[in-house]
Amino acid sequence: MKRLLSLFLFSLIFMGCKNDNSLVFEPSNFGNEPCANCASVSISIPKAIGNKKLDETINTALREEIIFILKYDDAVDASSIDMAIKSFQNEFAKLKEKFPEESTQWEASINGEVTFENERMLTIRLDYYLFTGGAHGYGSIRFLNFDKTKATELNNEELFKDILDFEGYAEAKFREQEGISSTESINSTGFMFEEDMFYLPENMGFTNEGLQLFYEQYEVASYADGPIILTFPFEEIQKFLTLQTF
């Protein structure tokens, strides 16, 4: 009887460890109270609230990405979101001190959400907007992709069995979407791919609709053209993907 009980308890523990890739998030907000002479910062992101390695991996990746977005001065050493916010505000304060007549207020807004999750994978998208003077601000997104079973963040190459194989498929779909024939130069309609060669964007991630490729403004087209977005349904691209998505 004791042996059976021990086996039962061991099985429960084993199953709990095996399935320890479940995630729970809570909203996490950062920013400052509105004021006339300070930069406006508003950040809302999901925070993984467990003690697992996966939670730490996700929260660390989010923190580092937000610091990268907010750091106006590369010489500043910011190790937390609060420090990055302070750095952003300090740079605006320096500008106001140097040019007191400057009335334009700096602004930073970052919002994060889970756009895809299954037993193996997780994707979080950060939508952000920065305004630091000039004719217009700059808005974009960042995708963060994670392998839940290994508790690691994935780079773009790790998403695919063979990234060059997928790149060829993506180029054909890009040409189809943008009305560029296979015999024409990829830049024949005004795109600005370097060396006139198609390449994947740095920014890609999963949504419930499939894999999204996001070319930022200026990445392959003019600012006026806005971002270029391609979405590939899972059933069309599963053969290219390293991890099962459905």
Automatic annotation (TrEMBL):
It comes from the Bacteria. Residues 166-235 form the DUF3298 domain. InterPro entries: DUF3298, PdaC, PdaC/RsiV-like_sf. Residues 37-137 form the Deacetylase PdaC domain. Transmembrane segments: none annotated. Pfam families: DUF3298, PdaC. This is DUF3298 and DUF4163 domain-containing protein. The lineage of its organism: Bacteria, Pseudomonadati, Bacteroidota, Flavobacteriia, Flavobacteriales.
